[in-house]
Specification:
The complex is a heterotrimer. Chain A is an alpha+beta fold. Helix content of chain A is 24%, strand content 35%. Chain A folds into two domains: 4-240, P-loop containing nucleotide triphosphate hydrolases (Rossmann fold), CATH 3.40.50; 247-358, no CATH class. Chain C has helices at residues 41-49, 91-101, 106-119, 135-148, 165-182, 193-199, 217-222, 227-232, 357-361, and strands spanning 2-12, 15-26, 30-34, 56-61, 64-65, 76-79, 153-157, 185-190, 202-207, 210-216, 239-246, 249-252, 256-259, 270-276, 281-282, 291-302, 306-313, 316-323, 333-338, 344-346, 352-354. A six-stranded mixed beta sheet of chain C has the order 6-7-8-3-9-10, with helices on both faces. In chain C, strand 12 (249-252) and strand 13 (256-259) form a beta hairpin. The chains are: A alpha+beta, B mainly alpha, C alpha+beta. At the A-C interface, helix 5, helix 6 and helix 7 of A face helix 5, helix 6, helix 7 and strand 16 of C. Chain C: Pfam families: ABC_tran (PF00005), TOBE_2 (PF08402). Chain C: Residues 3-233 form the ABC transporter domain.
Chain lengths: 359, 291, 362
């Protein structure tokens, strides 16, 4: 196990990158703490897979260094980095049995047979693969194959980190729950550093203790799921995390008041002074509620019942706004106003969050 | 059962049936007819039963030709399959050079069989051939018209030159279908180059390789034009393969009866081997199970 | 315009892919087929389209038997999970292709393509080729092609499954709006209960080749007729518990019992299966009546605003979804409360005996 350090890291797929735009992964410095579970979250083309491949050694970065426990491994090939990786589509050796698949990485490293057998047995038990051990890997279901891929990573005791590249893509929804819980249990038990790449916010937030949100080749925020939800550092984080994402409204902020064109004025939880650039306020649908008496006027366009809650799609001064209402909360025809919880209204200048001062 | 059944559809198959009858069934029946008859000339035939077949089964000539044929097929398969895979493994995966390689590989496949024979016939000649002269210059005594080994060498080399590309191209197509993730996983598992080949590349190429081996086996088993042009079956009978022997018998000696029986046996052998291949292939598929 | 399946079934070899099914789909409706992989969704769609001929039963279009009619002779459009477009044509030509096949006049083609493109927000990309577009745009192009045909029946087979989460969310919100305007019969297959709820309309739940229930989506969600439907229509999975009602007590496990409160009080004595959804499990004592269970925490997952709690109750796995961030250590004992109004009680045969009270209200 190891701490992984990225220093001045950047990568471009072009031979002679010129401007910032040529970089698929923009300048990045970060320490991946030993034993922590991370998620790399972002849309397609945000650079998350590039970053993962740099850590695993499949790509050599154009700039910067990568250190494992202080040792420079920038030029070390994948095989020497002692990492394990689980891919989007299960990779198994079809012609081998499940047992031989699990033993494969150990035998390649020349471990004695007795030790191999003991490790394979232990990993198979953890993953619930014991009964399948003598079977050929070919023809197994996708989730069994994905467990084997995972097992091949876990079977080595000395792995520095386990990397996951959207590992649950081909798994059925109800099996996703089981596999994800199993991953968490394995993490608790062995304390490997885990890095999990995904575009699915639920997977990222539920798996990781710290989530790295990426957008257009840049890390926009690193934080716990709660931080990302309650205090998104960038409007992209607000949009990308939560469904529906955060509401954004252009506003003029004066002290602890925000004026929203034509609609009215709302209170903010903190005081702001001397703001420059394009100012918006951001508030999550969960922190907005409908009211009959107070707040800003809205026009309700549609109410979507998604089972455990309802999503109210409305117009506020010509801008779309989403409000989450709970399952058994009545929505009357007179509820034509929206109220925001002042403590959860954020202020953004040119897309970045401004931390105000306490009132 | 509500499935619509329309018997008129059978009329659509009729032209094909007629065509097959003319192109395959009628000639085949003629051959069967000849194989059970004998003649003293003047187009007068009489019933001969299975005499020709019996005769053939006890004919040393046929067994020798069959032995040579099997040996030839075995040698070319043993050389071409590994060599083809080896070439496929070392071909550039993408870019300009991969296109160049593909075109170069395809060249021998585009040359007509008799031209291939002529090329090698001239190429190997001691008096005017580049290869023949060069070997002579090196002090090697190489003469495929007189030496049995030399004759075999030139025919095998010619076949390898002509057909290895086919295996290489098929294997290459198989290799290209392997997702990158497999190679990456193997790197992470610290698999050796051999292990990557044995456990990833070979299993994934298996489907195309079975087809390649089947094609090459049938082709080499029926080879005629090239050795006929180069050695004419000689020296002596050293390179007289089944097809050359058959033609000698049928057209050279005009022994229609034995030749017809010979053809039918030849046909049955090919059918048997193809059936064996087919069975093996489908069994492999069944083992694969539902994906 | 209606599409009716009358006793339609499909058997391949000895395997039954779809059991005899009756369904009636109306004009201008969204019909979701919800079920796990291999539950028969795709087979059912193929039967509706005429790509497969049913083993038994009849398919009626506007009351007319179209069972043997080929797909080419029906007005059907289909969109698949993979993004299927003609790679060498521009987006405009792609969308226009079904109309060109029908030999429509130039002006009309132009007009209809522009309208479909506007609906799908593809106007800026009409001159590009599909491979120059993002995944979401490619799938919108395929959707536009299906729409432009103005086919009476549009079949969508997990059309959003290969898209990024966020894109999926946006298209899901757009799709019902598009349907309102189009007026065809839409059939949409998905594995995700949340998607079915977002799409609204009607839902047919499928399990092992059988349609277990068909009705308005929120209705099927809140009033599942049996335990199978409830299981199919719950993500995270529904929590189940074998119980016996005896002497005003709900008994379960080894000698544990709780007083039967709320709707459970009216239940006749006997053996039942109780089921409740993850979002109705509470970690704090509620103000009203509640069933109280003791369980062991297996782990917790935090989504930022909510926490999934995985529990072991008497050897059975439960999942709870509670608001806020709750960090619970694995192995820790936990007491959970469930409002009896949110409990479904199924008979031993799986049929619903009492429904949760929320559904009565709704």
């Amino acid at each position: 196990m190891a701490q992984i350090t990225l220093q001045n890291l950047a990568h471009s797929y072009l031979p002679n990158p010129k401007g910032e735009d040529d970089y698929a992964l923009k300048q990045l410095d970060h320490d991946w703490t030993d034993g922590e579970a991370y998620a790399l979250l972002g849309g397609s083309g945000c650079g998350k897979t590039t970053l993962l491949n740099i850590i695993s050694g499949l790509i050599r970065p154009s700039r910067g260094r990568i250190l494992f426990d202080g040792r420079d491994v920038t030029d070390a090939p994948t095989a020497q980095r002692n990492i394990a990786q689980v891919f989007q589509f299960p990779v198994v050796y079809d012609t081998l049995t499940v047992r031989d698949n699990l033993a494969f990485p150990l035998r390649n490293r020349g471990l004695p047979a007795a030790q191999v057998a003991q490790r394979v047995q232990a990993v198979a038990r953890m993953l619930g693969l014991e009964e399948m051990l003598p079977r050929r890997a070919r023809g197994l279901t996708a989730d069994a194959k994905q467990k084997i891929s995972l097992g091949r990573g876990m079977v080595r005791q000395d792995v520095n980190a386990i990397l996951f590249d959207e590992p649950l893509t081909v798994i059925d929804p109800h099996m996703k729950w089981e596999l994800r819980t199993q991953l968490k249990a394995l993490h608790r038990e062995f304390g490997h550093t885990m890095i999990y790449v995904t575009h699915d916010q639920t997977e990222a937030l539920t798996f990781a203790s710290r989530v790295v949100v990426m957008h257009e080749g840049r890390v926009v925020q690193i934080g716990t799921p709660q931080e990302l939800f309650e205090r998104p550092a960038h409007t992209f984080v607000g949009y990308f995390i939560g469904s529906p994402g955060m509401n954004l409204l252009p506003a003029r902020v004066e002290g602890d008041r925000a004026h929203i064109d034509e609609s009215g004025t709302i209170a903010l939880g903190r005081g702001y002074g001397g703001l420059g650039g394009r100012i918006e306020i951001g508030v999550r649908p969960e922190f907005a509620r409908l009211s009959a008496h107070e707040g800003l006027p809205v026009v309700i366009r549609r109410i979507e019942d998604v089972g455990r809650h309802r999503i109210v799609r409305a117009d506020l001064g010509g801008r779309p706004i989403n409000i989450v209402a709970s399952e058994d909360e009545p929505i009357g025809p007179d509820m034509t106003r929206v109220v925001f919880d002042p403590a959860h209204v954020g202020v953004y200048a040119d897309g970045w969050r401004v931390e105000g001062s306490p009132r | 059962m509500n499935k619509p059944i329309n018997n008129r559809a059978w009329f659509l198959v009729l032209p094909v049936l007629v065509l097959v009858a003319f192109s395959a069934v009628i000639p085949l029946m003629t051959v069967v007819n000849y194989s059970v008859q004998d003649t003293f000339g003047d187009n007068e035939f009489f019933w001969n039963g299975i005499y020709w077949f019996d005769d053939l089964l006890h004919s040393e000539r046929m067994w020798n030709a069959l032995g040579r044929q099997i040996l030839f097929s075995a040698i070319v398969l043993l050389i071409e399959v590994p060599l083809g895979i080896f070439i496929a493994l070392h071909m550039p995966k993408k870019g300009f050079w991969s296109s160049v390689c593909l075109v170069l590989m395809a060249l021998p496949l585009l040359i007509p069989f008799n031209v291939v024979g002529t090329i090698w016939q001239i190429f190997g000649r001691v008096d005017i051939g580049l290869l023949g002269r060069a070997l002579a210059g090196l002090g090697l005594d190489f003469n495929y018209t007189q030496d049995v080994i030399d004759a075999w060498v030139i025919i095998v080399v010619m076949d390898v030159w002509h057909w290895t590309s086919l295996i290489a191209l098929l294997a290459y197509a198989g290799l290209r279908s392997i997702p990158d993730a497999y190679y990456q996983a193997a790197k992470i598992d610290q698999a050796s180059r051999w292990a990557v080949f044995r456990y990833i590349e070979l299993p994934k190429m298996r489907g195309v390789l079975v087809i390649a081996v089947l094609l090459r086996f049938m082709d080499s088993f029926m080879i005629y034009t090239e050795p006929f042009v180069v050695t004419g079956g000689g020296p002596g009978n050293a390179t007289t393969f089944l097809s050359i022997d058959l033609v000698k018998m049928a057209l050279g000696q005009f022994d229609l009866g034995p030749a017809a029986a010979f053809s039918i046996m030849y046909f049955l052998i090919i059918l048997l081997v193809s059936w064996a291949f087919y069975t093996v292939m489908t069994n492999l598929d069944r083992e694969e199970g539902p994906q | 315009m209606t599409l009716e399946l009358r006793g339609v079934s499909k058997t391949v070899g000895r395997q039954v892919h779809v059991h005899p099914t009756n369904l009636m789909l109306q004009k201008g409706t969204m019909n979701v087929l919800l079920g796990p992989t291999l539950s028969g969704k795709t087979t059912l769609m193929r039967l509706m389209a005429g790509l497969d001929v049913p083993t038994a039963g009849r398919v009626l279009w506007n009351g007319q038997d179209v069972t043997g009619l080929r797909v080419q002779d029906r007005a059907v459009a289909m969109v698949y999970q993979q993004f299927i477009n003609y790679p060498s044509m521009t987006v405009f030509e792609n969308i226009a292709s079904p109309l060109r096949l029908l030999g429509r006049p130039r002006g009309e083609v132009e007009d209809r393509v522009r309208r479909a493109a506007a609906l799908m927000r593809l106007e800026p990309y009409l001159q590009r080729r599909p491979l120059e577009l993002s995944g979401g745009q490619q799938q919108r192009c395929a959707l536009a092609r299906a729409l432009v045909k103005e086919a009476g029946l549009v079949l969508l087979d997990e059309p959003l499954a290969n898209l990024d989460y966020k894109l999926r969310e946006e298209l899901r919100a757009e799709i019902p709006r598009i349907f309102e305007e189009a007026g065809s019969i839409f059939v949409y297959a998905t594995t995700e209960p949340e998607e079915a709820l977002l799409l609204g309309g009607n839902t047919a739940t499928l399990w092992e080749g059988r349609v277990t229930q068909f009705g308005p989506t929120p209705d099927v969600y809140r009033n599942p007729v049996d335990a199978t439907t409830a299981r199919v229509f719950s993500d995270p999975p529904m929590n189940f518990l074998r119980v016996a009602k005896r002497l005003a007590q709900i008994q379960f496990g080894a000698g544990q019992g709780i007083p039967a409160v709320g709707s459970l009080a009216a239940l006749p004595e006997g053996v039942y299966v109780a089921g409740f959804r993850a979002n109705h499990v509470g970690l704090d004592r509620p103000t009203g009546e509640a069933l109280e269970f003791r369980a062991t925490v297996l782990g917790s997952e935090i989504t930022g605003s909510e926490t999934f709690v995985h529990l072991d109750h008497d050897g059975v796995r439960w999942v709870g979804l509670v608001p806020g961030v709750r960090d619970l250590a694995p192995g820790m004992p936990a007491t959970v409360w469930v409002n009896p109004a949110h409990v479904f009680v199924f008979g031993e045969d799986g049929r619903l005996v009492t429904s949760s009270a929320t559904s009565m209200a709704a």
